Every structure is written in structure tokens, then in C-alpha cells.
Input
Amino acid sequence: MPPYVVEKVDRQDHLDSIVDIIWTAMDGVDPSHRIFFPVFGDTVTDRAKAIQLSKVRIWNDHQSDPASHWIFVRDSASHEIIGGCQWRIYSKNPFPDGTPHIEALWWPDGDGRHFASEVVRQCYTPRTKWMARPHVGMSLMCVLPQVQRRGIGGVLMQWGMAEADKLGLESFIEATHGGQGLYAGCGYRNVASVGVEVSLADASQEWRDLTARLLPVGYTAMWRPVLGIWEPEEPGKTWQQRLEAAGDVGISVLESCT
Output
């Protein structure tokens, strides 16, 4: 029996277990985690409430998005869920009307919500310009810290890559620094680097505090062509065209990596 078993999420308790791993693996490690998974208060109870709210939000988002495919890896011996990720599979252009309005409703109304919304907008806008076509995208991956670097991330990647190849689709990832090595090993290449800039001349004290506490935020866009077959002059040829066609995406594209 293989050491790990891959399954698709079809029950909320499965996705709840993945969310628990997200918090275990990322909270306190990556400051920007709190933009997407905020805690309002300093007590154990406040954190537990935030975790529960994030479970409800992520399950509802998954249920309402037909492109969403959450998968998880279970340890064959213990049957414990030890890692998971979300793939989105788009058989047609997911952005026919351009960049949608983005509001971080998981924050209460006020400067905190405006701050989080602006960060998410800047992170999300390039994808809507560059990937306005059928594709497979990986949104988030997490693995329990005590079993990291044992091939679990690769197992999660193979599921999405197999789906992309079966459907004849290209694939796209917004990679953090820590994930780039895994994705490169799976055949993805860097195509652009994006950074978030939220400085305001008249920023409130709360906005300045959030900037100092939760930033910097940025990512490297990584791409894999159909079937992972790299044509001569790729990825430079395709991505130079896409970057030029997209024009000014309204955020800080630090550089083309092609």
C-alpha cells in the first residue's frame, strides 16, 4: 500500500481538517496569513472563533464555485489528513467581464476591510488579465509542519497536473517563495513577479499599523503549458505577448521573469 492516499473533498469535515492544517502551517509563520484569515482579539477564544468562521467561509465558497476542487492527502497507516490544496479547473474563460469587484467581507466594515480588499485586488487583478482563458489553477496548498518535505506536496501537485493534461489545459500558480522549488520541480516556470503597494499619503493609524504588521505581500506567477511541453522560446514568447496585451493591470508588476 502506498504511504499516502489522495481523495477529493466531498464533506465539510474533510475541508474543516484542511483549514485546521492551514492555520497550523501558516499562522504565525507568514504575517500575510492574517489578511486572509484575520483574528479579532488576542485570546484563545478569539482565535478559535476566527478558525471556525474561516471554515464556514471556505466551505461556502467551495460549494458556490463549480470550478473548485479541494483534495487532500491521508496517511495510509494513521488515516490522518496531513495535507490539502485547492485546484480550480476552468473549461472556459473565467473572467469574461474582466476583473470582478473585490471586497474582503471576512473583515468588519472599516479601514481593515478596505486595506484587505486592496491587497486582494492587487494580488488577483493580474490573474484576470493574464489567464482569461481555459486553464487549471492552484489556489492554496498546506501540509502539516511535521510531515513537510516528504513528498506530500508533490502528490497534491500530481493530481492537478493530471487533470490539466487530461483536459489539454495550461496551468498557472501564484507562488510564494517557499513553494517555488516544488512547483519548478513539477515543470512550472517563473513568468512574472508581482508586489503589493498600499501606501496612502493620508492613511489612518489603523492602515499604517496593518501595513507594518501584515506586509510585504507578493508572489511569483508560474506557468506550465499544455501537457508540460515547452516550445522553443517559451515561456518568453507567450508571456511577453500576454503582458503587453494586458497593459497596465493597475498594480505593481515588478518584472517579467521571462
Summary: The longest helix spans residues 44-64.
